[in-house]
Design goal:
Layout: E1 3-7, E2 10-13, E3 18-25, E4 37-43, E5 50-56, E6 61-64, E7 72-77, E8 82-87, E9 96-103, E10 108-110, E11 114-119
Parallel strand pairs: 2-11
Antiparallel strand pairs: 1-3, 3-8, 4-5, 4-9, 5-6, 7-8, 9-10, 9-11
């Protein structure tokens, strides 16, 4: 059982930057850090949760959703089991609850969510 604890949300003006963190605990030797795909999702009221970025820790490949490509950067620190999302050039449309997420071949876990609000 993994636990994911997010931090770093809040209010920022359009054009500003913010960094989200997600500390993950509970990894074991059978499924260590590099066995997992880590990622960030976001959700606004009335819409489905959407994936915006992820890293496959096995081969370090990354994916970005088009609306955040070039503005957001996902990274992971395997030594400390922590993932990050650096968000630059934030826009009001980025306002959402952001969730960190990890998945292996048979398990998936979510963070509690953190609100990011971008004012115009």
């Amino acid at each position: 059982q993994l636990q994911l604890v997010e931090s770093g949300g809040g209010l920022v003006q359009a054009g500003g930057s913010m960094r989200l963190s997600c500390a993950v605990s509970g990894f074991n030797s059978e499924l260590p850090w590099n066995s997992w795909v880590i990622g960030w999702f976001r959700q606004t009221p009335g819409k489905e949760r959407e994936g915006i970025a992820c890293i496959n820790n096995g081969d370090s490949s990354k994916y970005y959703e088009n609306s955040v490509k070039g503005r957001f950067t996902i990274s992971g620190d395997g030594a400390n089991n922590t993932m990050f999302m650096q968000m630059n050039k934030l826009e009001p449309e980025d306002t959402a609850v952001y969730y960190c997420h990890v998945r292996s071949y048979d398990s998936t876990y979510w963070g509690q969510g953190t609100q990011v609000t971008v004012s115009s």
